[in-house]
Amino acid sequence: MPPLIHHPAFDAEFDPAHRFPMRKFTRLAEILVEDGLVAPGGFQVPAPALPSWLELAHDPAYVEAVLTQRVSREREKVIGFPVDERVAMRSACAVGGTVLAARLALEGGLACNTAGGSHHAGPEGGAGFSVFNDVAVAAHVLLADGDVGRVLVFDCDVHQGDGTARIFERDAAVFTLSVHAERNYPTDKARSDLDVPLPDGMEDESYLALLPALLERAIREARPDIVFYNAGVDPHRDDRLGRLHLSDAGLAERDRRVIGTCRERGLPVAGVIGGGYSRDIEALARRHSILHRVAAEFG
């Protein structure tokens, strides 16, 4: 089984009525233990990201504001919730989780976080339920440490990875790809190295048919030493904020094709869970666990 990363702080314990389903992180970890995908106490536990790491992708003044809980009301409104002590710790630990997943993937070929994919956070600050862009920070850390020379971000969240695109828009070492619903958030789209906007209502067969050529092109052009895979489940037909109509089986096959293609090429993969929105935390957490179940097939 590939390493799975989790930290109790991933759940900042929001009110269940909040639009962001924060409880899904705790329930996801419980499900992975209950279903035998990880032994009790078997998660890799990350340390919070260092401020110096966060500053590789974000304005240092913004990083300090988050870590001292002094984010402006205007920025909190853009993010979608107040940045209190628990949110600050959650955000730093989620980044630490993705950095750890990446390092473990470089060692063993594949590792998955039980959080991550906060791809709307850009250079100036957070947005769209994203405080820090964990994948962007992790990519920067690996590049700065000399662990990798080139990176591919393969983002299948239903929303465009606009923050990631903006962070790396002038960085030739990182190739950003975003497969997303064209008419969904954010209204003001960024420019990824490869954007694949999809029409509303797309179902499994049409979606899956796109992947082989996309993977081939992305790997050819990126020439990556590692792939960060955002396995957002918000393309699901029952997602509250999605506009696509994928099924559980469709999401599983998507993950299987992305991970499988990368592993066949000998490319390490760091998986993050990305977005997923539902009042039904049990169903949502199980949907997120698809990534980890598929990853187990490659263990």
Characterize the structure shown.
41% of the residues lie in helices and 11% in strands. A seven-stranded parallel β-sheet has the order 1-2-7-6-3-4-5, sandwiched between helices. The protein is built from ten helices and seven strands. The model has no long low-confidence stretch (mean pLDDT 96).
Task: Summarize the structure in short.
The protein has 299 residues and is an alpha/beta fold. It is built from 10 helices and 7 strands.
Question: How do the helices and strands line up, and which of them pair or pack?
Answer:
Elements: E1 4-5, H1 24-34, H2 51-54, H3 60-67, H4 73-79, H5 85-108, E2 110-113, H6 134-145, E3 151-155, H7 162-167, E4 174-181, E5 194-198, H8 204-222, E6 226-230, H9 248-264, E7 269-272, H10 281-296
Strand order of the largest sheet: 1-2-7-6-3-4-5
Helix/strand order, N-terminal first: EHHHHHEHEHEEHEHEH
Mean pLDDT score: 96
Number of helices: 10
Describe this protein with a few key phrases.
299 residues, alpha/beta, 7-stranded parallel sheet
